[in-house]
Amino acid sequence: MSGDLQHPKTGHLPVESLSDAQAKAELAWLAEQLTRANLAYHRDDAPDISDAAYDALKQRNLAIEAAFPALKRADSPSDQVGGAVAEGFGKVQHAVRMLSLGNAFDDDDVTAFDVSIRKYLGLEPDAVLTYSAEPKIDGLSLSLRYEAGVLVQAATRGDGAVGENVTANARTISDIPETLTGAPDVLEVRGEVYMSHADFAALNEKQAAAGGKTFANPRNAAAGSLRQLDAEITKARPLRFFAYAWGDVSAPLAETQSGAIKRLAQLGFSTNALTVTCDGPDAMIAHYKRIEEQRATLGYDIDGVVYKVDDLALQRRLGFRSTTPRWAIAHKFPAELAWTRLDAIDIQVGRTGALSPVARLNPVTVGGVVVSNATLHNEDYIAGRGGDGQPIREGRDIRVGDWVQVYRAGDVIPKIKDVDLARRPADAVPYAFPDLCPECGSDAIREEGDAVRRCTGGMICPAQAVEKLKHFVSRAAFDIEGLGAKQVEQFYADGWIATPADIFTLRARFEGGMQQLKNREGWGEKSASNLFDAIDDKRTIPLNRLIFSLGIRHVGESSAALLANHYGSWEAFEASMTAATVGEGPEWEDLISIDGVGAVMAASVVTTMQQDAERASIDRLVDALKVEDAVAVATDSPVAGKTVVFTGTLERMTRAEAKARAEALGAKVSGSVSTKTDILVAGPGAGSKAKKAAELGIATMDEDAWLALIGAA
Ligand code: IVH
Description:
With 713 residues, the chain is an alpha+beta fold. The chain contains 25 helices and 24 strands. The strands form seven sheets. The chain has a five-stranded mixed beta sheet with strand order 2-11-10-3-9. It has a five-stranded antiparallel beta sheet with strand order 14-13-12-15-16. Helix 3 runs antiparallel to helix 9, helix 12 runs antiparallel to helix 13 (485-493) and helix 17 packs across helix 18 (557-567). The longest helix is centred in the N-terminal third of the chain and has 24 residues, at 20-43. Bound molecules: 2-(butylsulfanyl)adenosine.
């Protein structure tokens, strides 16, 4: 670490004696130094200056700003708290979420996709349904916002809701127009940033010659090049862009997907030439095969073919599941394979106690990436049995010392596909899956019907406790700046924190007492106070984040959002979960009536919320917090917050569609009429429900009236 840091020309001069030009130059230099120090500290966990030097820079910055207020920079480091600039890029809230796609891995999945869409839309079997089919570009997605025809913002996908502001970098890409003629007033163009094979090879050669970092594959190179804090670096990188979708638009681009793509091409975007329309699965699969044949000679990476319902009115009707559209699917190419030796099998214990076997492999390159670990799923998988008890790999088990075939499916952890018995060492023995937790020694039990063996140690198992804490502070949960996996492990090991609630008493315990955070190795005055502030910052937390952070089995980010939207407040959620009985009763019915919440997840939530030790820990946590109520999905819709029941035959939409649309507008759809029901939508043949609604004086309307109410008539 360097010692004192000063501007080489003016750093030693008293602030009062600086000229305007000197002050301006020094402020720019200070902003640069502080940004670099912040990144080294927060992003790279590798502080490169001492806390004292950091503080001195900040003080100097403040002093100059006080003396020359007019020269204060828009990106002044004094306006940034703790690690606010840590990630380097500003955050952008997407006006329309950037979603991912569901996957199809074989022809049957494609047929099933078509069938499910027809069913959802209630189409006659002989009705023609047209799809667009286009290559799935293997790069990273980017959203470009144009206002009055001028590029005003470019953002990465991020978590789908919030991305990174990479506007300056995007402007350096020649495929991206700065201005558009004849575009709608607001137009968000979405597409993929990628790098061609030739440009990738040349870049790596250049990087290697200059002793710089080389990239594993074109996608990493594209991502690394776009996410440069210095746009000049991006400019020097040969990035390209294909447009294939859009977000916020003030006027429709066209009536069909294919029409919209043509329009984007007319506006000056590069669109992919291998885009066609197909009337049904046979034609889609034929196009997939054609693209697959050309894959090696395209000159850029693609990893499948995307099918989209062509008619945009139908796309609107189909809408979205929590993270993927119903109207599109990605038909993936088979993964690349490689053979290597299995050196060892390690067991990792996760936050729900699951014992996960991990293959330690002799490193091997698969699809351009070096792989040395792969998942082995569970004990049945190692033994050669599938989830249904039937043999997989024709019953061949996997043993340490075996030669195994490894593949990567998309971004996920590598997997093992097969084993070569001919190369099995003579002394290889069947793998004995542990029945004790390797971390805490508790029994590891496999429950009836569960593929996974789990440690029964609960909170006493250090692995579970640490994983729970890591989950708790992770990005989609509490996201506490300066408290990452590494710090959580250290604090846990030293007994400073055992459960999430302990995080919120850290300041009280370690700011001024006998033991102080600032005296710990790797910490100082500044970083300690930053952490305490960052923790206090998160005492107010949105309900969905809180529910997600609890680490309840089966409750991911999107399910947590469903629960939060449904219950609205922690008090309502907590009361209902406490009163619920798994499998029956009004609270249970209410819980599983949520679209996207199944019985397994529901049971997991109820059991966790009723388990004494868990509950005590959760209550202690919530006591330390202010939980923000969920904001209804669409508060301005006339049915937001209303409970709706559909009964009888619906003629203009299917039941699934009716439910999904109502929920998208913030209504709650229930299966039974009660005093809580606000609206009954009754089609022909409505029976007892209509009668009950009439008795209870509940507003009843037909399908047309309902569609008129939600503005869809
Ligand atoms: S459509 C609402 N079309 O694949 C769906 N995505 O796995 C919007 N991608 O996040 C995406 N080529 O980054 C679409 N022709 C294509 C694509 C494509 C590549 C990427 C995109 C998306 C990811 C989903």
